[in-house]
Amino acid sequence: MAHLRSLILLLSISLWSLPALSQFCESVNGYCDSENMLASSKILIKGGTVVNADHQEVADVYVEDGIIVAVRPNIKVPDGVRVLDATGRLVMPGGIDPHTHLAMEFMGTETIDNFFSGQAAALAGGTTMHIDFVIPVNGSLSKGYEAYVEKAKLSCMDYGFHMAITKWDDIVPKEMETMVEKGINSFKFFMAYKGSLMISDELLLEGLKKCKSLGALAMVHAENGDAVFEGQKRMIQLGITGPEGHALSRPPVLEAEATARAIRLAAFVNAPLYVVHVMSSDAMEEIARAQKSGQNVIGEPVVSGLVLDDSVLWNPDFITAAKFVMSPPIRAAGHGKALQAALSTGILKLVGTDHCTFNSKQKSLGIDDFRKIPNGVNGIEERMHLVWDTMVESGQISATDYVRVTSTECAKLFNIYPRKGAIRVGSDADIIIFNPNSTFHISAHSHHSRSDTNVYEGRSGKGKVEVTISGGRIVWENEELNVVPGSGNYVSMPPFNYLYHGIDKADQNYLASLKAPVNRIKQSL
């Protein structure tokens, strides 16, 4: 495929023998050039407009050994420094994708993108860090963590982990403590996928309490799993077995109900809540209502929910329709516009992708029964371009807002700001050079995912990532990737983010408001 010919893998001979090199190249379907070495550790980005979430200014950016060491106009550097001319360009923090599933075993198969191909695609699209969801092994958090550490050995950019909770016993709370020590500060609870990942309200309550005690962020996939199961049976009874049955079986009301239920349980515990992949205006309105009452609820839309509608699921070609199957489903026209408006006003805080890719053969597992179609779409490479074109070019948000929703807010929520999500002295040199006047075009023939389909096929728009710098290395330039497997680093994320500010005071006020217990004189009857 054409995109593979643009993929240059730089492997250090000191780390890889030639036989091992050959075997690795074959395993990732790439082209290796072991004679190329890493780019200069000193880079000057000159003449661009530096855009952070809170301000923008014309300035140079100087990088040494993976760290930003100066941000100011007219920086002078000695010979030997790589100079990148950013005149007329925007210099912004690399994107951080809060929601991905690489090398995930799910629905009888495994996502087609692993920690190398998925991250390579991300870098080509201007994302320099992502947070992936660890799935426990038979309910064991520790075994799940170990499995994902092994999977992540292919990483070529920085990454962090969320942890899913799929059961509850005496061991899980202790393992949650261990995970926080290992740098995981968020735990996800599935309210859907009955019979596999779905948890009960009782488990969710226990999880919320434990997250609060650890200073971790509780996350929910909000759909009413019992009702979805009923909806699936109803569709099958009606003879609706194709991809359209997926959307029809789990309508927006079921997403809204679960979102409202999770919000109310979080309020009962007084714990912050993060709702992943908000796909409907119904769910968004529940989040807005909670925020208006003062509750700490974060809503995360994903790119597919912002720019697509569910008409594609009625396509007569099965593969074309099946590639759009994800959960919650892509919604009817109108929901995307409502989500865009909520993102522009701050009701929804940051944009993820839920990148969870399966190829055509894998999607065909459900050709006779939509319930067996592996759920998931792409987006890790396309997110930065589509958010700019959809939100900035339309005038709905500014360039500084763009940095906030694609990078800075994620860094703050997961407690890694300003190391990530900012172009500041001392921050990691994760930087993109973005040309707002250039155009992009999306196609499965040119993308860097291993999938043979793309849900954004044929889309074009304004604004293009021309250069990506990850950890001080130029990894995307002139339409070519320069990536090294194993060069990515695990980013430890500490607990107690800004959402926990004031939680103790609120708990004290609650206790004071009870006016209980009442001291009563016990009288014998």
From TrEMBL:
<dbReference type="Pfam" id="PF01979">
    <property type="entry name" value="Amidohydro_1"/>
</dbReference>
<dbReference type="GO" id="GO:0005829">
    <property type="term" value="C:cytosol"/>
</dbReference>
<dbReference type="InterPro" id="IPR011059">
    <property type="entry name" value="Metal-dep_hydrolase_composite"/>
</dbReference>
<dbReference type="GO" id="GO:0046872">
    <property type="term" value="F:metal ion binding"/>
</dbReference>
<dbReference type="InterPro" id="IPR011778">
    <property type="entry name" value="Hydantoinase/dihydroPyrase"/>
</dbReference>
<feature type="domain" description="Amidohydrolase-related">
    <location>
        <begin position="90"/>
        <end position="475"/>
    </location>
</feature>
<feature type="signal peptide">
    <location>
        <begin position="1"/>
        <end position="22"/>
    </location>
</feature>
<dbReference type="GO" id="GO:0006208">
    <property type="term" value="P:pyrimidine nucleobase catabolic process"/>
</dbReference>
<dbReference type="InterPro" id="IPR050378">
    <property type="entry name" value="Metallo-dep_Hydrolases_sf"/>
</dbReference>
<comment type="similarity">
    <text>Belongs to the metallo-dependent hydrolases superfamily. Hydantoinase/dihydropyrimidinase family.</text>
</comment>
<protein>
    <recommendedName>
        <fullName>dihydropyrimidinase</fullName>
        <ecNumber>3.5.2.2</ecNumber>
    </recommendedName>
</protein>
<keyword id="KW-0862">Zinc</keyword>
<dbReference type="GO" id="GO:0004157">
    <property type="term" value="F:dihydropyrimidinase activity"/>
</dbReference>
<keyword id="KW-0479">Metal-binding</keyword>
<keyword id="KW-0378">Hydrolase</keyword>
<dbReference type="InterPro" id="IPR006680">
    <property type="entry name" value="Amidohydro-rel"/>
</dbReference>
<comment type="subunit">
    <text>Homotetramer.</text>
</comment>
<feature type="modified residue" description="N6-carboxylysine">
    <location>
        <position position="188"/>
    </location>
</feature>
<keyword id="KW-0732">Signal</keyword>
<dbReference type="InterPro" id="IPR032466">
    <property type="entry name" value="Metal_Hydrolase"/>
</dbReference>
